[in-house]
Design goal:
- A hairpin with a 2-residue loop joins strand 2 and strand 3.
- The chain has a single domain, classed as Histidine-containing Protein, Chain: A (2-Layer Sandwich).
- The protein is globular.
- The longest helix is centred in the C-terminal third of the chain and has 15 residues.
- The chain is 39% helix and 27% strand.
- A four-stranded antiparallel beta sheet has the order 1-4-2-3, with helices on one face.
- It is of the alpha+beta class and 85 residues long.
Length: 85
C-alpha cells in the first residue's frame, strides 16, 4: 500500500467540479483508492463520497492506494492533486 498526505490549497476546496476530476483520475487505476479527512474516509472513485468529506482549503487529507498498480497510481494522484487542488 502507498499512502501520502496532502493539504488542500484551492480556495474553493474540493467542490463538485474538482471532486469529479479526482474521481475520474482515481477510476483510471485498478488499485483501490481511499480518501480520508480526519476520522472520515471514502472510496475516491465515488463522487458522493468525495464530496461528502467536505474538504476545504487548509484541510489535510490522506490518500491510500492499494493494488497491482499502486506505485504508478500514487505518483499520478499526487501530481494530480498538486495541479488541481
Amino acid at each position: 500500500m502507498r499512502s501520502f498526505m496532502y493539504t488542500i490549497k484551492a480556495p474553493v476546496g474540493m467542490h463538485a467540479r474538482h471532486a469529479g476530476l479526482l474521481v475520474r483520475e482515481a477510476q483510471r487505476w485498478k488499485s483501490d483508492v481511499t480518501l480520508s479527512k480526519g476520522d472520515k474516509s471514502t472510496d475516491a472513485k465515488r463522487i458522493l463520497g468525495v464530496m461528502g468529506l467536505g474538504a476545504k482549503q487548509g484541510d489535510l487529507v490522506r490518500i491510500d492506494v492499494e493494488g497491482e498498480d499502486e506505485d504508478a497510481a500514487a505518483l499520478k494522484l499526487k501530481a494530480f492533486l498538486w495541479e488541481h487542488f
